[in-house]
Design brief:
The chain is mainly α. The protein contains four helices and no strands.
Length: 117
């Protein structure tokens, strides 16, 4: 069992590091992904740590702690992504409005006759 969890932990950690290295994951979140990679490798080699943490927190069935943490992490990630998407949409809308104003100004300037001295 330890061989399987260790292999899985190393594979997940290697995949995360590879994706960070190739800039497929956001660099601004590099620290978070590096921590996730380290935790994946650590828990892969020492799954007993997870059982100890669960017992310390009073969780009687250790795997459900992992599921709960994973759900909380995914909900948090979805919330952060939604916040960033909302900011980008507002920024996009403002840029479109600015471009429309600039185009209107350009149209107005191009329709005026030249002033001759």
């Amino acid at each position: 069992m330890i061989f399987f969890t260790a292999t899985l932990g190393i594979l997940v950690a290697a995949l995360l590091l590879y994706l960070m290295r190739k800039d497929h994951l956001n660099v601004a979140r590099g620290l978070g992904w590096a921590v996730a990679a380290m935790l994946s490798a650590l828990l892969g080699f020492a799954p007993g740590i997870f059982d100890f943490i669960a017992k310390s927190l009073g969780v009687s069935y250790a795997p459900i702690l992992g599921v709960s943490i994973a759900i909380a992490a995914l909900v948090t990630k979805a919330l952060i992504t939604d916040l960033e998407l909302t900011k980008l949409k507002v920024r996009y809308q403002r840029l479109v409005q600015k471009i429309a104003l600039l185009e209107a100004d350009l149209q107005e300037l191009s329709e005026k006759p030249d002033i001759q001295d």
